[in-house]
Design a protein that fits this description.
Blueprint (H helix, E strand, L loop, with lengths): L1 H9 L3 H41 L2 E4 L3 H4 L9 H10 L3 E15 L4 E9 L1 H7 L6 E4 L10 E5 H7 L6 E7 L5 E12 L4 H6 E5 H8 L8 E6 L5 H11 L4 E4 H4 L1 H39 L1 H9 L4 H37 L1 E2 L4 H6 L5 E2 L5 H27 L3 H5 L4
Parallel strand pairs: 3-8, 5-7
Antiparallel strand pairs: 1-9, 1-10, 2-3, 2-6, 2-9, 4-7, 5-8, 6-7, 11-12
Length: 407
């Protein structure tokens, strides 16, 4: 009975109730969609980092990541390759030779990481071959070996498809070596920093420069099958190769995990701030309701409604208004997220700034279903807190005085 009375009371003053409901709906809609945008931004950053840069897992000499020197190659690379071939959890893998050096033209030079790769295997572990904006990915045969560089580096070096680039690096014996390469392909990812620093050549060509007599493998990049636990696979590899460094993408890019956690906290803080602001608005509205209905509440208590039921009545009215607004906000945000998650939101005007920080300018909003359940609990708690002060004011009314109230 009291539930239906509370629901009818909400709509006695439709304008005032709709103001509260719309304020709640718009506030939650904006905050939910903002959280979805942040989630989408971070998820794309993680996906792009895994697909374009580091894969699911990497294996190195223990000292390689300290200074990325050509000296620190993997001694038992053949055994590692055999292990990866036989492991059913491995979707694809590629071994690379990496050397720091300089890429230069007649116009300019830039420090780079030279990646010696097997193009066929590399296509299975990274998406660089699909990021080409010009040229091809090691498909042409030429007297001059091919190189694939980024559009950012091509712009800096003032070079392009078919033009020459000189690579300079230190060989394993310490001698400075140079090689002439022809630009075959130009790629572009969402990470400007990665693009400007990384160039790709055939593994055999880099081997001839740095160590013609001994094959050097600097790292293994590994992609795992869906559903494979990173921790379990990492433990298995560490047991098989205790002298090597086996790192998952979470360990190779710890800042991503830190930023992801920070984004989650920021999202909840944003929701809490919105709910606090709405709570004060609801408190104000319910206090006005109590003042306007002083005579009515006095009569209810005079004819036998106890104070506990009056408290419950006020609380239910507050919760109904809040939950109605929250449901409207959730539905509106859910529809908007669904519509924009397929095509994404293109922040093309700020693409340069986004890519300078390693983020894609095309954002696909995403939010987990569990977030809505947590939000529902938070809304109910906020509504209950907002109802306490007005309900306590109602309980302080004296039935005899309230009945004589003419306000």
């Amino acid at each position: 009975m009291i539930w239906s009375v509370a629901w009818r009371n909400v709509w006695r003053n439709k304008l005032r109730s709709m103001v509260v409901i719309l304020a709640t709906a718009i506030g939650l809609y904006g905050s939910i969609y903002m959280v979805a945008l942040m989630n989408g931004l971070m998820q794309q950053k993680i996906d792009n980092t895994i697909e374009n840069e580091i894969s699911d897992m990497q294996v190195h000499h223990p000292k390689f990541l300290e200074d990325e020197s050509i000296q620190y190659g993997i001694d038992d690379a053949t055994e590692v390759a055999s292990f990866l071939k036989q492991n059913s959890s491995v979707k694809a893998w590629s071994q690379r030779t990496k050397a720091t050096g300089m890429a230069s033209t007649a116009h300019s030079g830039n420090g780079v990481m030279i990646n010696g790769i097997d193009p066929i295997k590399e296509k299975e572990v990274t998406a660089i071959s699909g990021k080409l904006v010009e040229g091809s990915y090691f498909e042409k045969k030429s007297r001059i070996p091919s190189i694939v560089i980024s559009s950012k580096l091509a712009e800096h070096l003032k070079t392009g498809i078919g033009k020459k680039v000189v690579l300079t690096t230190a060989a394993i014996d310490g001698e400075t070596m140079q090689g002439l390469y022809k630009v075959e392909g130009i790629y572009r990812t969402s990470n400007t920093v990665f693009d400007e620093l990384n160039v790709f050549v055939l593994d055999g060509q880099l081997q001839n420069m740095v160590s013609p007599d001994k094959k050097i493998v600097s790292e293994f990049a590994i992609r795992l099958n869906d559903g494979t636990e990173l921790g379990d696979f990492k433990s298995g590899m560490e047991s098989a190769f205790p002298d090597l460094s086996v790192l998952s993408w979470k360990e190779l890019a710890p800042t991503l995990i830190a930023i992801l956690g920070m984004m989650d906290q920021f999202g909840f803080i944003l929701i809490v701030i919105i709910l606090l602001a709405l709570t004060f608005g609801i408190v104000n509205v319910m206090l006005m309701v109590i003042i306007e209905r002083t005579r009515e509440l006095g009569m209810l208590m005079a004819i036998g409604m106890n104070r506990r039921r009056v408290f419950k009545l006020i609380m239910l009215e507050t919760i109904f208004m809040s939950v109605t607004g929250a449901v409207a906000g959730v539905v509106l945000s859910g529809v908007t997220i669904s519509l924009t998650s397929n095509k994404g939101l293109n922040f093309a005007s700020w693409s340069e700034g986004f890519e300078a920080m390693g983020y894609s300018a095309l954002v696909y909003p995403v939010i987990e279903t569990s977030f809505y359940f947590i939000l529902g609990i938070m809304v109910i708690i906020a509504a209950m807190l907002a109802s306490i002060w007005p309900a306590r004011k109602a309980l302080k009314l004296q039935p005899a005085d309230a009945v004589r109230d003419d306000s």
